[in-house]
């Protein structure tokens, strides 16, 4: 059996393209055995591993209001209090444990106290998911084992490392590319900070993209804002359409790897 892993990058709303990809993979009967994800990739990967369909997973994001006054933080560092999103997560992950997922899941977070990224694959699930998607300074950090953890994409936005020794074939889905901008497009200190963070992330990620046996990176995804909830369906469709277009190449390569593995 060819053990196949799926690596899902962060990217906010752009991460809905992961769900479009997974829909296409299932329609073409290409299965994966384990998932690694960061931030939006962690959330989409967890929803799929919990048994939700790509369409059901999309509803999770549509049903999660971001800037409702209820979620504003009053005593924590961050515009929004990540902990207040827990009830929504509990509806989709009622058992709150990695161990009940249908596929092994590896989620990255950034430990702000020691300045390193960490991988989680066991124990309570929701706390880790909330931490992995807590992009500073929008969302407040979460406590894991007494330490502050935030967005896994800060230090590892494409966590293929947990799967490299476990999988024979790696499929990557990267939805947070860097595109040129004009100085006139940057109008706030927040935009400057986000641009600097994006550049730093991409510098770390770029060498790892080539390590995948097959990489999906849907054209046009860079035009979608990380927090643009109006573009949820657009992002999903971009991922699905690109995956369907690329699927013959993946099937051909997958067949070749399978035959080589079993000496057909």
Q: Explain this structure to me?
A:
This protein is of the alpha/beta class and 264 residues long. The protein has helices spanning 16-27, 40-49, 54-62, 86-92, 126-132, 161-164, 189-209, 232-261, and strands at 4-8, 34-38, 105-111, 116-120, 142-144, 147-151, 169-173, 214-216. Strands 1, 2, 3, 4, 5, 6, 7 and 8 form an 8-stranded mixed β-sheet that branches. Helix 1 packs antiparallel against helix 3 (54-62) and helix 1 packs across helix 8. It is globular.
Oligomeric state of the chains? single chain
**DSSP strand content:** 5-15%
Note the total helix count: 8
Topology, number of strands: 8
What can be said about the biggest beta sheet? Answer: 8 strands, mixed
Structure keywords:
14% strand, alpha/beta
Put the structure in a nutshell:
The chain is 38% helix and 14% strand. The protein is an alpha/beta fold and 264 residues long.
What is the topological layout?
Blueprint: E1 4-8, H1 16-27, E2 34-38, H2 40-49, H3 54-62, H4 86-92, E3 105-111, E4 116-120, H5 126-132, E5 142-144, E6 147-151, H6 161-164, E7 169-173, H7 189-209, E8 214-216, H8 232-261
Helix pairs in contact: 1-3, 1-8
